[in-house]
Each structure stands twice: as C-alpha cells, then as structure tokens.
Amino acid sequence: MIERFEKFSFYISEISRYWHKIASEEMEKYGLKGPHSVYLLALARYPEGLTAPRLCEVCGKDKADVSRMMSIMEKKGLVVKEGTNNNLYGGKLMLTEEGKNAVHFVKNRVALVVDMAGKDLTDEKRNIFYEALESIAINLQKISEAGLPTEETD
C-alpha cells in the first residue's frame, strides 16, 4: 500500500511540476504566468462573462487570487470588467479581443502538449486513465470534506 501511495504521489507531483513549467513558459508570450492560463480558459467557456465569485468557483481559487490575477490580466488588456462602477465583485469579467486571441493560442498549445504527453496511450487507455483520475479526485474531495475515519479500514 505504501509503495502505491509513493508512486501515486510521485507521478502526480511530476505531472503537476512539468505541466506548470510548460504553462509558465508558454504564457511568457503575454507577460503572464502559467496560472493565468486557467483563468483564460475558464473565461472562454463563458463568453457572456463571469462574476468574480463565480470565477472563484469555476477555477477552484479564492477571492484574493482571482482579484490579483484579474488585475494583472486587465492591465495586459486581456480582460475587462463590466458592470456597476467597474467593481470586480459588482459586474462580470469578460475577455477582450486580445484575451480571445490569447485563449486561441493557449488552447492550441495545450492540445499540442496533451497530445505529446499522451502519445504512448491508446484511446482505450486514455479513457481509463481519465476515468481513474476523476474517481480519485472525487474520492479525495469527499474524504477532504468528511475527514478521514478515525479507525483504519481493510
């Protein structure tokens, strides 16, 4: 069991580390960091715009992170705030044309990276892999919310 945990932890950590490294390098074109790509892609899925609290939910980030990232992206001309008094929490955040161009770039680069990273997987193995990751993520979320049982289970 410990060996499985070590392998799982190691490979998840390695995937995350290299993914973030690649994302950071790719986002340099826009003077941004890797985490900005998450926000760009989220805003692209909602062309009618998102409120900051909804963006927090969609991206799994806190208000401080959203505020900081949107401020940077707004200064770069990628995002605009629309709504009452241009207040971050009173209106919606939307991509500008430059933001949409950045999303197009990011989507193309992400597709390339995902294809290259999974080149040795058949479609069947890829589907099993994604199903397994989803199951693990859901189970970890439930454990995190409910807490670990006090007694060991078999």
Walk me through what this model shows.
By secondary structure, this protein is mainly alpha-helical. The chain folds into two domains: 25-117, Winged helix-like DNA-binding domain superfamily/Winged helix DNA-binding domain (Arc Repressor Mutant, subunit A); 119-148. 67% of the residues lie in helices and 6% in strands. It contains six helices and two strands. The protein has helices at residues 2-27, 35-45, 52-59, 63-75, 97-117, 123-146, and strands at 79-83, 91-95. The longest helix has 26 residues, at 2-27. The radius of gyration is 19 Å and the shape is globular.
**Number of DSSP E strands:** 2
Query: What share of the residues does DSSP label as strand, in percent?
Result: 5-15%
Helical amount:
55-70%
The span between the termini is 11 Å
Mean pLDDT: 89
Give the secondary structure arrangement, pairings included.
Elements: H1 2-27, H2 35-45, H3 52-59, H4 63-75, E1 79-83, E2 91-95, H5 97-117, H6 123-146
Helix pairs in contact: 1-5, 2-5, 3-4
What structural keywords apply?
154 residues; mainly alpha; Arc Repressor Mutant, subunit A; 2 domains; two-stranded antiparallel sheet; 67% helix; globular
Brief characterization of the structure:
With about 150 residues, this protein is mainly α. It has 6 helices and 2 strands, in the order H-H-H-H-E-E-H-H.
